[in-house]
Amino acid sequence: MQFPLRVFPSFLFGLALMTPAAMSQQAPTFKPITSETEAPAAEQTSPRSSMAEIETAWAEKNYVFVREGLRQHVEDTDQPLVQFRYGRVLLEALGGPRDLEGAVFWLEKSAAHKFVAAENLLARLYLSAPQDGDLYQPERAIKLFSSAAARGVAESQYYLGLVYRDGLSIEANLETAFNWLLAAAEQDHQDAQLAVSRAYSRGEGVTKDTNMAVHWLTLAAENGHTSAQFNLARAYDEGRGVSLDRGQSLVWLQRAAEAGHVQSQRVLGRRYLIADDVAANPSAAMTWLSTAAKRGDAEAMTLLGDAFGGGYGIAKDSENAWAWYNQASNREYGRATAAIAGMLASGDGRPVDLEAALNTYRTALDQGYTPARIALGQLAGDGKLDGLVAPHTVVPWAFDAAAEGDTAARDWLKQQADVGIRPAQTAWAIWLTEQGNTPEDAVPFFELAAQAGDVEAQFRLGQMLTRGDGGAQNYVQAHAWLNIAATGGHSKAAEVRSTVTDLMTAEEIAQAQTIARRFFEDAANQLPKGVSQ
Question: What predicted TM-score, i.e. pTM, was given to this entire model?
Answer without folding.
Answer: 0.79
